[in-house]
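[Solved] Which block belongs to which protein?

Original post:
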Amino acid sequence: MILDEAQAIKNADSESAKAARLLRGRHRLVLSGTPIENHVGELWSLFEFLNPGMLGASRIAEGATAGSRPRPEVVALLARALRPFILRRTKEAVAPELPPKHEETILCELEPGQRRLYQELREHYRASLLGRIEEQGLAKVKLHVLEALLRLRQAACHPGLIDGKRAKEPSAKLEVLLPRLLELREEGHKALVFSQFTSFLALVRTALDAAQVSYEYLDGKTRDREKHVARFQTDPDCGLFLISLKAGGVGLNLTAADYVFVLDPWWNPAVEAQAVDRAHRIGQDKRVFVYRLLAKETVEEKVAVLQAAKRGLAESIITGDNSLLRDLDRETLEALLG
């Protein structure tokens, strides 16, 4: 039995994971580019399929599957225990012939109206959330925290994501993105544009339609993905592919593109990296340029700083335990809302 894209069973309680564990086979193999997407406990689910009971029968599993970050000594012990069962091949080892990838962050200065909306939201959530945390504790208001961070991230992208009536207002990110896309089109390049917000991609589509620019589009509702991929890969007149970050993070080969734009940062850099690698993969013969758009002096910029500080924690096991949200505490929240 071979499971490809095995992170699909990372949640041990999901129907997919339960069904996989019911299958019978003498030999089992799992393949995954991101065996750890959010926390070390996801690896437990993969090994429960591979070698049932191997981790569940030891005290290591307690530190790996609990909601909190495992202690350093647990991480080290887990790494030693799993090493004989893992063959890790990095892209550099598998495809040394790949052209280099250039990555750059572009800080976008919010327009006055967009800045005012963002600051009003930030002040509202800062006042309401920190008071509730003081009274009830962080655990009881976690959902309100997630809603606040979502709204602030949307406001950093475009006012229209907060209020549909504001869809025609200026957006710092669109003003940075659109001229670059039109310039690349004139020069004959192809580009991928990722966002986790389909509502933001809809605004990009509206702008491209107005400029009479040909493009392809894919999100979680798209059917016949192969047809859309084939057109982008082969049609010289189709130079842009707008993709929902989560829907397009795996299973796509888009080597016709040599430019990638990530419009909003994902909490988990591993998912974002998977999306970028739709272009930077075996078969690519051009240098790939990756641009991440961050709204200056917003929660987006602060998330990027926090991710950079946490990125290497579980690299000692496989790829990294980068769940910012799971480890959120009051101090971190105050920094995000500051």
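(Second protein starts here: sequence line, then its structure tokens.)
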Amino acid sequence: MTINTLSKYKACLIGGAIGDALGYTVEFMHERNIFNEYGENGITEYEIINGKAIISDDTQMTLFTANGLLLGAKDGSYIHSIYDCYKEWFITQNCGYETKSKCRDLLVSWLLDVPELWSRRAPGFTCINAISLGKMGSVRNPINDSKGCGGVIRVAPVGLFFKNTSIISQTDMLAAEASAITHGHELGYIPSAAFAHIINLISHSNISLRDAVNDSISHTEKLFKNAEHIRYFSKLMKKAVKLSEKKYSDLDAIHELGEGWVAEETLAIAVYCALKYENDFEKAIVTSVNHNGDSDSTGAVAGNIIGAYLGMDSIPQKFLDNLEISGVISEIAEDLYKYDLDEYQEEMKSKYKI
């Protein structure tokens, strides 16, 4: 069955938010406590707070990445526009929504008009600290030696944005650079290149998820052939693929891959879950969050992948109901899809100053 491309865009970002919201509830719980509290299958339903399933900083930063890409479309200044949007996300984590009017002329992202995005949702220390320094890190000029998962969880929009898969190396590298803004270790940004590669292929071509993952591994090996840690990264990713083909228990497999606090483990766990349950959105998401580690991050990345692969029709209604700012997330996904379509140019120019 052919899945509509717009459906893939929406499901990628909505799926990421679903995994984020489901995992956010149990992010700092030991798996023993998760299963004791929620039953033998772990958490499978949202914890509703004030009528909403709450997203974390993972989804917030993903949206600001998307806004940066759309702003950068006017002149190709993608990485600088992404950095500008990260600086504005930083404002939301340190100020209240009521302060927005005081600096309206300085702001570039329309997302700052969304009150919910001014909520502080356990932002990663590395992201906050790196942006507070007032200078942009890069692959060539790293700002620190962090390989935390705060870089990889936010770059799915890069894979969606560029529809031409023939320029996938540039797409991958942009994702790496977007992560290197705050995460300077090779393993802080190399997984982002592989992640964007997977999203790009499954969103814009008729390729199996397994083939997309394998292609991301081989392509990343070439793109970062001189990197000190590329062999380790490739080995971990190949291990995730092999584990998905075996009859291991999910927890045993995830334990072999790590806990997801660092970027390469986040991606490996997400890839394992998406491959193991490539035709079952709910099972992939539930598996990705019920473990000892960084549940919202592994859930977000798994949701991005399985959502982009299966499309909106694969998502159970219970996960669409009550999801915080789902309308904003869908709107950003639509904008990523239509920004280069002639019939939408005036709308895009007005909204994103293109």
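Accepted answer:
You had them paired correctly. Confirming on the second one: The chain has one domain: 5-54+145-344.
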